[in-house]
Design brief:
Elements (H helix, E strand, L loop, with lengths): L8 E7 L3 H12 L6 E8 L5 H6 L5 E6 L4 H11 L4 E4 L5 E2 L3 H11 L4 E10 L2 E2 L3 E2 L6 E4 H7 L10 H11 L4 E12 L5 H4 L5 H18 L4
Parallel strand pairs: 1-2, 1-4, 2-3, 6-10
Antiparallel strand pairs: 4-9, 5-10, 6-7, 6-8, 6-9
Helix pairs in contact: 6-8
Length: 223
């Protein structure tokens, strides 16, 4: 049988009014020393030039434009369109390090796990933090089949949708491992979603309560 070649990696990039940063994010994907990959930009109802920036890139960058529905819905739309055996995520204002994808893919293929994540460096202008291990969307590479075992991102949260998904992934028994190398540069700026949507921080409480309720149901005899 002919060699099928390396597996396709799908990169989902939700973007909302991200025209100022999206070009850098896509350039960091294009700079990865790996193929085949596809980058799916989901413009979540932006009012700036986000879609135009995405269209300025040639395939394998593709664009999905939808009315504003929130980051969970945007991630879900990207995953629904993904064709890869492996899934990765990158927020439109962040950057992958040059060897990010190869490091994670090699680890995922060599270790008996469903998901790997690496370290993150936060930066603002010329200032940057020391590398730290972090289970963030942009640090994660996982098998698409494992994602669907867990299920879709919640769409009723403005913040914390990935924290909720990660909790459900642990509850579902996904095997996880971490790398000692930085794989993501997380940009800190005045319009980060956590800063922009301060009023929605109660969503984090909802995520914790939902996890506790699932645990209670699991521990309840006869549940």
């Amino acid at each position: 049988m002919p060699d099928p070649g390396p597996p396709l990696v799908s990169v989902v990039i939700p973007a909302y009014n991200a025209a100022a940063f999206l070009e850098d994010a896509l350039a960091s994907v294009a700079a990865q020393d790996y193929e085949p990959l596809e980058a799916i930009v989901v413009d979540d109802g932006s009012s700036d030039g986000t879609s135009e920036v995405a269209r300025s890139f040639q395939p394998p960058v593709t664009l999905i434009a939808q009315p504003h529905a929130g980051i969970g819905a945007a991630r879900n739309a990207g995953v629904a369109a993904a064709r890869g055996e492996f899934l990765a995520f990158l927020d439109a204002d962040d950057l992958w390090t040059p060897s990010s994808l190869v490091l994670r893919l090699k680890a995922l293929e060599q270790r008996a796990v469903d998901l790997v994540y690496g370290q993150v460096i936060e930066f603002r202008g010329n200032l940057e933090s020391p590398p730290a291990t972090a289970l963030l969307p942009g640090t994660v590479l996982l098998r698409a089949s494992a994602f669907h075992r867990v299920g879709w991102f919640r769409t009723d949260l403005r913040l914390g949708e990935f924290i909720d998904w990660s909790a459900r992934a642990r509850e579902a028994g996904l095997g996880m491992d971490s790398l000692a190398q930085p794989v993501l540069r997380r940009r800190i700026h005045g319009t980060n979603i956590g800063i922009r949507d301060r009023a929605a921080r109660t969503d984090y409480v909802r995520v914790v309560r939902a996890a506790l309720e699932r645990r209670r149901r699991e521990e309840k005899p006869g549940a």
